[in-house]
Amino acid sequence: MLPVAELHGVRPGELTPRILESTQPLVLRGLVADWPLVRAARTSQQSASTYLRRFYQGMNVVAMLGRPEIDGRFFYNDDLSGFNFFPANVRLDGVLAELEDHRNDECPPAIYVGSTTIDTCLPGFRAENDVDLQGRDALASIWIGNRTRIAAHYDLPDNLACVAAGRRRFTLFPPEQLANLYIGPLDFTPAGQAISLVDFRQPDFERFPRFADALPHGQVAELEPGDALFIPSMWWHHVEALERFNVLVNYWWRQSPGYMDTPTTALMHAIMTVRDLPPAQRAAWRQLFDHYVFDADENTAAHIPPAARRVLGPLDADATRALRAQLLKRMNR
């Protein structure tokens, strides 16, 4: 695998479209090195925990907890009928205390608080620890835990992941490696996103032989406190937290208007309505999707007067709302 391309010397207020709209991953060394949380974490785990407690107002968070024997890998159980961890609604200060209690354990339980919205859980934190995304409407989240492994998955939004404490290793694959990553169920997932069933630490090439074909296309980056990684939309990424205490702050944003639904809805609906058609009908629908969706351009509806194009014309918030209502009516008949 190749190393992710790196940029050095970029500051939190200097993120350009070249970075934020890149179609390739980028490591931004030292981007958030001056954050107070990063400085506290470099002092000690206790200093970082104390700093986070300054902003905590008492709301519960969802923690994923696993026995020591899962070795930090949050995943399915053996037959994929359930998971090897359980969620718990707990106080964040309690999680921080638990992480401190198990800091010196050789085989600690796996503890992971993921994707927690910063502005609701830690109000005021971003006044001291933030980046300038040039007007993008981003969701800022915090991730806290000990040594954990999160299976490869993709996210629809673009992602800027900033390491505030500990170290993290990211292993990334471009979207076209989908077939070589052996993705699990789409509608029953550990944390909402479909994941690769391959254990990246110990790949089983007998069970997953095509994963060997993916490896030459992979990219890997190891981040220190203060480093950041830009992950483009739809890139598969496997995330390992390498220290006994790790904190990551990430920002998600979409390059499409907020009123657009997630394409996952269309994928699931197509599985329900198109996938199992007879081959000739499925081929005909492929032509329709190519014509109206994947290859659509200004010529697709040029023969229709603009006022009569309806869904074939440009969509806005009102038109999308009306189309969604029409679809819901059809589905609920």
Give a description of the structure.
Pfam families: Cupin_8. This is Cupin. Residues 75-268 form the JmjC domain. The chain is α+β, with helices and mostly antiparallel strands and 333 residues long. The protein folds into two domains: 2-253, Cupin (Jelly Rolls); 263-331, no CATH class. It is built from nine helices and 15 strands. It has helices at 17-20, 36-43, 45-53, 92-101, 118-121, 211-214, 263-273, 279-294, 317-331; strands at residues 2-3, 6-8, 26-29, 60-66, 73-74, 85-91, 110-117, 139-145, 148-153, 158-165, 168-173, 219-223, 228-231, 236-241, 246-253. A nine-stranded mixed sheet has the order 2-3-13-10-15-8-7-4-6. Strands 1-12-11-14-9-5 form a six-stranded mixed sheet, with no helix packed on it. Helix 1 links the parallel strand 2 and strand 3. The N and C termini lie far apart (51 Å). 32% of the residues are buried. The mean pLDDT is 96.
